[in-house]
């Protein structure tokens, strides 16, 4: 199905547009990823999908194309967590690097992927991790996905290293000024077979479509309302968090409501130095870790343990993952 034929289906406005089948969506995304469409056609696709909205079947088809094309991180025996980081800090500090480092301390291999810079000028996880590495903390900036070792630690990968064609779709935002379907797909794609994906959504209406895709694809995943779009719990109060175990849904917690008894003292999210200092203080137990973030990390370790139990794990791995995090 040509891009023109697809546009005739999806570019009829919110009420007149017709959804693509999973197979049609896969074919369209394959053409986008391989550069078989012009910049004009790419822009038309981005705007049309922005107006229409994606169905779970379309998202699944787009992901089929991505997973058939992208470069992969090798699997292994080390429990692995994937953290997509594509929003950065607007006001609150970006704490995705902190979550990654906390999990690495507990014996996990954590793959953080995203863009090296943000079109809107937000502070990114890439910048924070780079500054933390300069402070002597072990963070790997892998040369290629295939070069990532099977060991505990935090690894950063840029989107263009995983799939240059997908970076081109993301970059349409720099011209159009709008996020597009690719910004949802990067939070759902799986660069490591068998890893636990921590996905997030920003607007409540995306909960149901994202959950439907995780169920449809049989994913092991955590899904939460992200903090300014990042896959990390709001340090002020727990968001709703859902788990998917081979696609089977389990609610971990409802969102906390009501006024805060005591708000944590957080740095300005736009300040790189303050964010790095705060991250390192929490990492080294100088400052207590906010309860929502600690609870999220505990649930991730629990999910990894449940996933490992399905694979007849070595007792040592199981015991390590079942340990509680130190407050």
Q: How would you describe what is shown here?
A:
GO terms for molecular function: anthranilate phosphoribosyltransferase activity. One of its GO terms (cellular component) is cytosol. This is Anthranilate phosphoribosyltransferase. The chain is 44% helix and 13% strand. It is α/β, with parallel strands linked by helices and 327 residues long. It has 2 domains: 3-69, Transferase, Pyrimidine Nucleoside Phosphorylase, Chain C (Transferase, Pyrimidine Nucleoside Phosphorylase, Chain A, domain 3, Up-down Bundle), CATH 1.20.970.10; 80-322, Nucleoside phosphorylase/phosphoribosyltransferase catalytic domain (Pyrimidine Nucleoside Phosphorylase, Chain A, domain 2). An 8-stranded mixed β-sheet has the order 3-4-2-1-5-6-7-8, sandwiched between helices. α1 runs parallel beside α4 (39-52) and α13 (291-309) packs antiparallel against α14. The longest helix is centred in the last third of the chain and has 19 residues, at 291-309.
How is this structure best summarized?
By secondary structure, this protein is of the alpha/beta class. The protein is 44% helix and 13% strand.
Structural class designation:
alpha/beta
Domains (count): 2
Question: Which series of helices and strands comes N to C?
Answer: HHHHHEHEHEEHHHEHEEEHHH
Task: Summarize the amount of helix as a percent range.
Answer: 40-55%
* Main β sheet profile: 8 strands, mixed
The CA-CA distance between the termini, in Å, is 54 Å
How many helices in DSSP terms?
Answer: 14
- Please give the CATH class of the largest domain: Alpha Beta
Task: Average the pLDDT over all residues and give the rounded result.
Answer: 92
Quaternary organisation: single chain
**In the CATH hierarchy, what is the superfamily of the largest domain?**
Nucleoside phosphorylase/phosphoribosyltransferase catalytic domain
Describe the strand arrangement of the main beta sheet, using strand numbers: 3-4-2-1-5-6-7-8
The gyration radius over C-alpha positions equals 19 Å
Q: Percent of residues in beta strands? A: 5-15%
The CATH topology of the largest domain is what?
A: Pyrimidine Nucleoside Phosphorylase, Chain A, domain 2
């Amino acid at each position: 199905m040509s891009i023109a034929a697809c546009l005739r289906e999806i570019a009829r406005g919110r009420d007149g547009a017709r959804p693509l089948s999973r197979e049609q969506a896969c074919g369209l995304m394959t053409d986008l990823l391989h550069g078989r469409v012009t910049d004009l056609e790419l822009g038309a696709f981005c705007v049309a999908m922005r107006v229409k909205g994606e169905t779970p079947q379309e998202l699944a088809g787009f992901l089929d194309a991505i997973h058939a094309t992208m470069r992969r991180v090798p699997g292994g025996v080390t429990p692995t967590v994937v953290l997509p980081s594509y929003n950065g800090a607007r006001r609150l500090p970006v704490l995705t690097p902190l979550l990654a480092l906390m999990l690495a301390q507990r014996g996990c291999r954590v793959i953080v992927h995203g863009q090296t810079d943000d079109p809107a000028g937000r502070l990114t996880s890439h910048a924070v991790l780079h500054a933390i590495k300069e402070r002597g903390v072990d963070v790997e900036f892998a040369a290629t996905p295939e070069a990532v070792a099977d060991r505990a630690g935090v690894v950063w990968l840029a989107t263009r290293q995983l799939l240059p064609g997908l970076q081109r779709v993301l970059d349409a935002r720099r011209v159009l000024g709008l996020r597009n379907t690719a910004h949802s797909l990067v939070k759902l794609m799986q660069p490591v077979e068998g890893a636990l994906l921590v996905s997030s959504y920003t607007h409540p209406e995306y909960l149901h479509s994202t959950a439907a895709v995780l169920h449809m694809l049989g994913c092991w995943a955590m899904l939460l309302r992200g903090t300014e779009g990042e896959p990390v719990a709001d340090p002020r109060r727990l968001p709703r968090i859902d788990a998917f175990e081979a696609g089977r849904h389990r609610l971990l917690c409802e969102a906390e409501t009501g006024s805060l008894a005591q708000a944590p003292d957080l740095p300005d999210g736009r300040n790189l130095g303050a964010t790095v200092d705060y991250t390192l203080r929490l990492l080294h137990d100088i400052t207590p870790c906010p309860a929502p973030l600690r609870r999220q990390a505990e649930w991730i370790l629990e999910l990894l343990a449940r996933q490992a139990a399905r694979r007849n794990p070595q007792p040592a791995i199981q015991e390590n993952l079942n340990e509680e995090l130190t407050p």
